[in-house]
């Protein structure tokens, strides 16, 4: 049997560990052959392939990014996308596809499996940890580590100058990175997309922090928005996914804080540093196990499924179910962090 592998959507530390796990077990235990498709769905769409065998996966475990490349190409948006994918799979003699991706990539895999009979197994990835059906996605732990280290460093410089330091972290729809790194780094304010914030309340927390002679750290997820609808309309724009959000919420918030409190404020946008570099040990462990279980699903002919972490077990869930709903921060968890605000 020949198996195709692709990585789609935003890259994420741990992708190479999945590819390695899939290929090592597939070749060693099942005698399968592999072909890599370059840049997510663009690969099968355009017949762009990469050789994938044991030598090709040697040494890639600790490497960030993906040796296969990635893109946000959606074959369902091409009129003849399905026909072209079928042609590539036939030409490459590929009988199963392992698709490693987030909401969009797996959404396509769900439809290809369910509606077009193209045998896909999904592996969830995103640093945002916002895929339902799995307790954790790999990449998240690494991103939280990067953000926590940044917050630790920002505490000392903030205190030297008695300034407010606003740290903008990733998370368009979910505040998992903000919540976890904010708690781990001892932030004084954490703002997440799930709950609109009141700028005056944030300023109140900041002022109370200065009263005890500590410089406040504000962690804000990139998708967080103020309660004030007028502010959102005035400063909001549509992102590439068509969602309205404040562009540069960190910069914007620092300016508001300066104007309203008279305190000096600076912003650090962590951006893609959270996605790059070597995966943490936890992410390598999770990604490797996802890879091993994905190739087992192929062996079992269990298509239209996604591997997922439940507790410490790896289980299989229907792809359609897994991509149907985003996993956002539970208000109870967020409320728990509130004791540290101010
Ligand atoms: O989905 C992961 C994510 O990292 C988001 O948090 C972020 O908004 C987005 O990807 C940015 O992706 P890109 O810059 O690749 O478009």
Automatic annotation (TrEMBL):
Q: Name the pathway.
A: Carbohydrate degradation; glycolysis; D-glyceraldehyde 3-phosphate and glycerone phosphate from D-glucose: step 3/4
GO molecular function terms attached to this record: 6-phosphofructokinase activity; AMP binding; ATP binding; diphosphate-fructose-6-phosphate 1-phosphotransferase activity; fructose-6-phosphate binding; identical protein binding; metal ion binding; monosaccharide binding
Q: Which UniProt keywords apply?
A: Cytoplasm, Glycolysis, Kinase, Magnesium, Metal-binding, Transferase
Tell me yes or no: is Methyltransferase among this UniProt entry's keywords. Answer: no
Site annotation Important for catalytic activity and substrate specificity: residues: 104
List the residues marked with site Important for catalytic activity: 125
EC number(s) in its UniProt entry?
A: 2.7.1.90
Which superkingdom is the protein from?
Bacteria
Q: Where is it chiefly localized?
A: cytoplasm
Question: Which positions are annotated as binding substrate?
Answer: 126-128, 163, 170-172, 222, 266, 272-275
List the catalytic residues.
Answer: 128 (proton acceptor)
Binding positions (Mg(2+)): 103
- Coiled-coil stretches: none
Give a single Pfam family match: PFK
Q: Name one GO cellular component term.
A: 6-phosphofructokinase complex
Residue numbers binding diphosphate? 10
> What this chain does, per the record?
Catalyzes the phosphorylation of D-fructose 6-phosphate, the first committing step of glycolysis. Uses inorganic phosphate (PPi) as phosphoryl donor instead of ATP like common ATP-dependent phosphofructokinases (ATP-PFKs), which renders the reaction reversible, and can thus function both in glycolysis and gluconeogenesis. Consistently, PPi-PFK can replace the enzymes of both the forward (ATP-PFK) and reverse (fructose-bisphosphatase (FBPase)) reactions.
Similarity section: Belongs to the phosphofructokinase type A (PFKA) family. Mixed-substrate PFK group III subfamily.
Name this polypeptide is given: Pyrophosphate--fructose 6-phosphate 1-phosphotransferase
Source organism of this protein record? Streptomyces rimosus subsp. rimosus (strain ATCC 10970 / DSM 40260 / JCM 4667 / NRRL 2234)
Give me the gene this protein comes from.
Answer: pfp
């Amino acid at each position: 049997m020949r198996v195709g592998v692709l990585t789609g959507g935003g890259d994420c530390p741990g992708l190479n560990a999945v590819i390695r796990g899939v290929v090592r077990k597939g070749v060693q235990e099942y005698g399968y052959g592999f072909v890599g498709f370059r840049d997510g769905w663009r690969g099968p769409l355009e017949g762009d392939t990469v050789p994938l065998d044991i030598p090709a996966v040697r040494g890639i475990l600790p490497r960030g990014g993906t040796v296969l490349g990635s893109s946000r190409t959606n074959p369902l948006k091409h009129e003849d996308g399905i026909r072209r994918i079928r042609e590539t799979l036939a030409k490459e003699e590929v009988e199963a596809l392992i698709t490693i991706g987030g909401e969009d990539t797996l959404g396509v895999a769900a439809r290809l499996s369910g509606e077009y009979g193209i045998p896909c197994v999904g592996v969830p990835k995103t640093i945002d940890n916002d895929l339902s059906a799995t307790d954790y996605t790999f990449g998240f732990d690494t991103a939280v580590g990067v953000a926590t280290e940044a917050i630790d460093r920002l505490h000392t410089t903030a205190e030297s100058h008695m300034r407010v330091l606003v740290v903008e972290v990733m998370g368009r729809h979910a505040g998992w990175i903000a919540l976890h790194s904010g708690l781990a780094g001892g932030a004084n304010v954490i703002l997440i997309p799930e709950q609109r914030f009141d700028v005056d309340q944030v300023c109140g927390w900041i002022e109370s922090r200065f009263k005890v002679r500590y410089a406040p750290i504000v962690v804000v997820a990139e998708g967080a928005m103020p309660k004030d609808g007028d502010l959102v309309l005035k400063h909001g724009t549509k992102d590439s996914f068509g969602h309205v959000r404040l562009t540069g919420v960190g910069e914007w918030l620092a300016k508001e804080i300066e104007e309203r409190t008279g305190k000096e404020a600076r912003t650090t946008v962590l951006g893609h540093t959270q996605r790059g570099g070597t995966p943490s040990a936890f992410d390598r462990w999770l990604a490797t196990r996802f890879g091993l279980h994905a190739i087992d699903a192929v062996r079992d002919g269990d298509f239209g499924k996604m591997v997922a972490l439940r507790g410490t077990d790896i289980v299989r869930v229907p792809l359609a179910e897994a991509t149907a709903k985003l996993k956002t921060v539970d208000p109870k968890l967020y409320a728990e962090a509130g004791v540290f605000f101010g």
